[in-house]
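Materials and Methods. Structural model of cyclic-guanylate-specific phosphodiesterase. The 753-residue sequence of cyclic-guanylate-specific phosphodiesterase from Marinobacter segnicrescens was retrieved and submitted for structure prediction as follows.
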Amino acid sequence: MPLRRPISVVLLRQLMKPVFPAIVLLTFLVMAAGLKIGLDTEENTQIRQTLAQDTEALASRLEQDFLNHVIALRRMASRLEVQPDLPQAVWREDARQYLQDFQTFQAIEWIDRNLVIHWVEPMAGNEAALGYNAGFNPERRRELKRAQKEGSLNISGVIRLTQGGPGLVVYAPVGAGDANNGFIAGVFRMERLADALILPRIRGNFSVELLEDDQIAFSLPATWPAQTEFSHTTATNLPSVEWKLQVKPTAEWIQRYRSPWPWVTFISMFTLGVLGSLTILLVQQIFKRNQALLRTRQELEEEIDQRVAIQQDLARLESTDTLTGLANRRFFMEDLQHTLSQADRQLRQVALVMMDLDRFQMLNDSLGHHFGDELLAQVSARLDALSNERVMVGYSGGDEFMVCQQHVDDIDDVIHLLGLLKGCFSEPFEVHGQSHHVTATMGVAVYPQSGLDADTLLRNADIALYRAKEQGRNTYQFYTEGMQEREVRRLELDKDLSEALARNEFELYYQPQLDLATSEAISVEALIRWNHPKRGLVPPIDFIPLAEESGRITEIGRWVIRAACQQLRKWQGTSLAKLGIAINLSGRELAEADLPDFLAACFREYGVEPGRLEIELTEESFIANIEHNHKQLRRISKLGVKLAIDDFGVGYSSLGYLRDFTVDQLKIDRSFITDVTRRHDDAVITRAVINLAHNLGIRVVAEGVETEDQLRFLRQNHCDLAQGYLMSRPVPARELPRLIESGVLPVSLQEPH
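The predicted structure was written out as tokens:
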């Protein structure tokens, strides 16, 4: 059970962390800010309470003074009601008395029953009001008529006075109903009213706004700009009108209630935090210096051990591949040469196996180098399990491995080893959460028959490996005499292939696809041919594998796309204008991210409808890197290009990708068509594929049709299209118009008119 560290040691480690002084400083800063915010909040609360008290006092005074003015007006109205014949001179004397008592009146008026102003006191400055109709708009008239009827007080609210400027009129009715004898009206100028009612200390320190229906009816600005952060609004209790007072203080007034203590507290706490952090930082530096001295001593003691370990690692790296952990090529070849020297003295045989992973390059390009490295590491682990005193496994590079078997007595020993090597690939490899079935192809060279030194043996094993690949992969081949001459020819062909595009030596041949419902050719498959200047017409089987190994398949594929688009443009306006062209695409071409953009550019350049081009992919291409291919094919399908699965039924047939991918056509592999009329199993499989495709809305093409019986079988089972030598071999573009016009269906199968 591990010993627990003392709490003091754990605490010391925490205190020594570089971030600790910053944490202390941040803590004091947060505390200082919190205290300042709290004190500021308390001050703001006190300021708002004081502002509210002043506002309420102002509103209370406004209510009281306004009420006194109203009482005075009602008293005059009552006297006129009792003495309707009151002489004008007596009324004016009475009005002057009130004007003297209440300095806020602009004027006092008598308004008759028809709402016309008859008397006004004083006359000076109010001449424009004499004879004016107080019901100057329908709303005012309606309000005054109601006040006459009910005998109730009426206040106009803030209006534009005939004397000029904003003001307020208070109407006190003289009697009610039919006995009404007009109004005694008190006219106030808002400036004078505000000047008389607002307290002197309010005047300079606050801006006051009178709100009527929540709109500013009148405002009295402060001496200095008001602060909008603080304001208080209170409603006034006035008859017949709903007013609110909104008061905003100036910065000078607010500053009277401010205290320096919030900032003093903040600066004090922050200073304590800085001093505490600096103290901790100084202690840490002293402690770290002591630790550095101790570490230096330890490092000096460990340096000798490290040098010994480095020397051991260098010796191991010289002989071992870092990725796979197997013997590298240099060390393997040195050990192979030593083994051959021993075998020469002991008169024994030695077998060298060159191994290449099938489809590795395509998987590596599609799924990424991280996938490839992980797969190589897992393969290496399985192969390394076979290593013993007689078998050594090495890594040559790329996707190639080397296996040397010593003390070979007869060929059965080598066959047994090959079986063990194939068994390493029987189970799938789990890479990045997905299962992948990987196979390997092997070439075998045996000493001394296939070479007397390590380099010759390795070269001949590599030649045998290439021949095994030509036979279909996932197999092995022993080196035999004559292979070397074929390898030389292959190398020459590979060299010429690099210059074939530049010399424009490629040509497309076209094989018609017959519509079995109409007996007409509706499309053709484009098949590339190489017009070699010395070897003549080279079939694809001889140079396409070379192109895939060298990586030139992408350039050739782009050439095929351009050539097909050019041909479609040439057919426009001719009898072949409705023909579509199907081209084959390799998995490596599909892995190119810019393939959809290249297709779109070709369609624009040559003015070709995308729907006239069909792309054929093998099932293997569909399965490899499904997620990437799904995105690529979805982009290609959106362009309008048709998609077809070639060689369906061999290798990786799966209903899953028929469901997930947008597939237009399915091409049944020729291996099923060849014996479809003789083998019951092939017939059953062909019918099943046709029915399955039709149920999924996919058209079916049968390739490799060479007999009339095969064609009749396909017609009877409702296959859509047929392609093969029975209709036509692939022909150059110049021969296609004549072939199409003469008809590709054999005469014996044509229906009589």
